[in-house]
Prior knowledge:
With 351 residues, the chain is an alpha+beta fold. The protein has a domain of 103 residues. The chain has 11 helices and 13 strands. The longest helix has 25 residues.
Amino acid sequence: MKTHEFDLYTDYLISQFGATTATGLSALLDGEISHDKVTRFLSERRYTGKDLWLRVKPVIRQIENEAGCLIIDDTIQEKAWTDESDLICWHFDHCHGRTVKGINLLNALYHWGDISIPVDFRLVQKPCQFSDIKTRRIKRASEVTRNELMREMVATCIANRLKFKYVLMDSWFAAKENFEDILQKQKHFVAALKDNRLVALSAADQKQGRFVRVDSLELSDKQSVRGWLKGFEHEVLLVRRVFTNKDGGTGKLNLVCSDLTCDGEQVATLYQKRWKVEEFHKSLKSNAGLAKSPTRTVMTQSNHVFMTICAVFKLECLKIKHKLNHFALRMKLLIKASQQAYQQLQILQAA
């Protein structure tokens, strides 16, 4: 990796508050580096999770802990006006409940204490095109599923000897194959369950096929009970979370944990850490210009995404050093930029 260009580009992403372009970076540096050189840098080779690991490894080794958490989640960055490709195509966004055109990014975030560091990522690409029988429209499909990519990232983190105990995930990754894979790797999982998941509360009920919906269990907030998921042979801990929504209504969340030494309070606390990946995704979009680059090829688009992840990692390092969150750090930059602009305006008016 060209360290000079890498630092220039990632610093530019952090300090820029509008569109991030090769021309804009060149102008910021008064032509010290040409926009063609920036474009060549983004086009020379594809950066992967391995490059990210090499970048974050020195910091990870200083803060990792055997009780750390690996958080898996994906996010979709909408790119409605960009030409469709293997990378920028239609994905189902469960936040909006519909398909959107954009980039589907799968992240592995390591969390311990108050520090959250990205350790791996995958971009969902859909190179396989087919015609839908019902609509007769051309659609795209991926060669691998998100669950397969998720298991691949967990395996990579273990191969990198990353210290962690729990894998945290939402209901979209709460698949039997993922649970079995995590246990085989001698790790534990904490995940949300969809309301229609079937569970048995005794070994006898499991053997005789007497299962009930998990949302039918009468549990209070943070109350736990042991049981079995249908199709999953290992005993698990089932925990109910009850919370108040913004509209004043009551919501319920069902959690499952493979660590039977935990209680309901501990499982609830562990799963709450999963929110850190949502903060990470928000910082990618708001503080690192994930959607603000007009790159046109799959190579440059993929590398821009990689650079935004590295830019947020830089913000996390600054957070550790200055005790300010990502948004507070960016606000300091914005205030300083506004002051400089105001002073320049006064000079122009005086002239």
